[in-house]
Amino acid sequence: MRVLLIGANGYIGRFVADRLLADPAVQLTALGRGDDADVRFDLATGSPGALTRFLDAVHPGVVVNCAGATRGGARELTRHNTVAVATVCEALRRSGCGARLVQIGCSSEYGPSQPGSSTAEDAVPRPGGPYGVSKLAATELVLGSGLDAVVLRVFSPAGPGTPAGSPLGRLAEAMRRAMQSGDGELRLGGLGVQRDFVDVRDVARAVHAASLSAAQGVINIGSGRAVRLRDAAATLARVAGYGGALHELDTPPGALRPVIGHPRTESVGHRVDALAHHRAESLGHHRPDSPAHRGDHRADAEHAAPVAHPYPDGCGGWQQADVRTARDRLGWRPRINLEESLADIWMEAACRI
Known about the structure:
- By secondary structure, this protein is an alpha/beta fold.
- 33% of the residues lie in helices and 16% in strands.
- The protein contains 9 helices and 14 strands.
- It has a 7-stranded parallel β-sheet, with helices on both faces. A 3-stranded mixed β-sheet has the order 8-13-14. A two-stranded parallel ribbon has the order 7-10.
- Helix 3 links the parallel strand 4 and strand 5 (100-106).
- Helix 2 crosses helix 3.
- It starts with a strand and ends with a helix.
- 50% of the residues are buried.
- Residues 252-310 have low confidence and may be disordered.
């Protein structure tokens, strides 16, 4: 089976490439903007006709699209996440290759969910920001294309290579800096958010399964369990061996409460005397998966921990996937638990200490 992988250098794309290359029945061709791609092509600016000619020459049986942007303004997100997918769909319609399309979507397409609920594929999407809107538009293009296509709506990917701007990436970086400098306290925001974390290697397995299946439509890819970011931070601290205290900035002034460990005594380490002020902005101005918004340093601050907007992805305080469709139609279940994902995130962060 010949597979054309678009976006092989991205966070998810790298693991999808590894998974596909491990299958001796797969002949993989990577298309992208980087010099290391087998074929250089920019979906955001390239024409459907040029892509059609390439498809006819390579004649893939499956096209996997992992390309896209998670940062930038509405115009940039639309160009990379929506217009690019329109180019893929139009090229596949024109081509005689008859390839199946596996499109990587995201949970931001759904927007906020009712706390305690599991979001199934038939939920009405209500994206809370430009990133989710651009990805939802791409999904609608795929579903309306008439192609043999499936969209995998990936919830919050985690594991090795986690971007530094993601919630778990920010936590690991803040903890690394604290341990490196001997800080006995960390002050962070957004820890009350609950997300469905799924290991990126399990996502790659789902893409492989979807490439081989006949399933169409939208399929959720998640763990099926929402985890509070505060609990993920506690697990990360345990994995890292961090004995300091973690304080939340989402509580009213003077009501900061420790949720991890206890402050070190002055004989062991010094107290962090920095507090980053959270800047409230409308959800529409937040970049999905963006780095934490930084507040101003106080005049006597020595260090300031990154502070995240509670809902920078436009998904509110809760998201949890209903993953029964993935089980039933792809034969897929997540295998890697969050603690293992966090251990791999920390191993990469610890290498920078």
